[in-house]
Amino acid sequence: MRGRPDPAAQEPCARGVNPFPPRDASPADPKDRRAGDASVRASSSSGSGGSGRARVGPAAVAGGGDSPGAPLSEERAVELMTAAFAAAAKAQQGAAEVAELATRLRVQETVMAQQQASAHETAAVMQQLAAVTQQLAAAEAARDELAARVRVLEAAAVQQQQASAHETGLQELDAQEAATQAAAADARTLQAAAARSEDEV
């Protein structure tokens, strides 16, 4: 006669745990036990056709091209790590290139600022040179005008000297002529007086 089944013996099966683990499995390893529990629960849920979702452990993580819910393979993890390292290297290289370009831009801006300052200084020097040139031209014009006036004054002075000399000569001639006439008159007077004296004698 078959007796009533023991509830304690059926409890592991009700929880979806295999009460008869394989001989090569190590029940002392908690990771293996959790993985076994998760696989048993997933297979039990899919086989029974129930509406509840299968609960999976931390090992069943979806990633990349793997199907959702499938364990992440070691090769896929290596590929993702390699891609992450490559992206980080490219980002670091891009940051270095950006820093180099920024440095070159600052150098170019400094050179352009120096060139602009030099251009401003050159323009200021050219303006000063133009002003000095204008002042020199004005001074040369004033000098030429003064030289012309000096020549005119010199010519007028020469003419005045010549006129004065001529007038002085004429005056001297007139004085000499007057003196000569006076002397002649005196001589005639003396001759007349002498003649009268002789006549009286």
UniProtKB/TrEMBL annotation:
Residues 129-163 form a coiled coil. Residues 1-74 are annotated as: Disordered. The keyword Coiled coil applies. This is Uncharacterized protein. Keywords: Coiled coil. Residues 37-46 have a biased composition (Low complexity).
